[in-house]
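Hey, weird one. I pasted the Claudin sequence into the form twice and got a warning about non-standard characters only the second time. First submission, copied straight from the form history:
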Amino acid sequence: MSKSVLQAVGWVFSLGCCGATIGVTLSHKWKKNTVEGIHHSVLDSVSNVAGLWDFCQVFPSGQTQCWPIAATSVPALLLFCRILMIFGILLGCVAGFLTICSFKCTTLGPEARHAREKLSLYCGLMNLLSGICVVVATSSYIYETLNTPPSVDPRGQSVMNEVSEAAQISLAFSIIWCLASVVMIAGSTTTAEPKVKYHYPTKPIPMQEYV
């Protein structure tokens, strides 16, 4: 497989992972817990879900009511996750655009082959850093959720926190993002340009006749 194909495949997967990360970042299904009704009836149960930006209550009727998390009451870990997710997404978008300029089939970017390879390598490293940021943010959130002690609701029932699907999807796509970045780097390794040797024609030295 040629390096250009590796670069293109890594770019496509990185771009897809970046788009998926934007979607899960806005989702409110990162953490969930279920509060059973006082009679332990399904019809009387309410599911609480939370994301990076808001928390919601899902009622048995299917109705969902959400409230934004107040800026003054954002936990330090949640703020840390927000910053890493936003930084990773922005860096991934910039890397995705610059990668287009490094393709040989485009007229954008530098014309020299060696310069394009360097740009592609830097874009691969930027994508790798983006994926690592998302991995760290998601892993920290999952770890904190799983290690949070159970709380007690007003009715005296124990409420356990569980990791919801958005956090799981974010972790899966961030790992794929890192792997795709490695593929990009493998397809963008710079190689030294061969030195061209020029052969200049030499004129024969005229023979002088001596009398």
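That's the output from the first submission. The warning seems to come from a hidden character in my clipboard, not from the data itself. DSSP finds four helices and seven strands in the chain.
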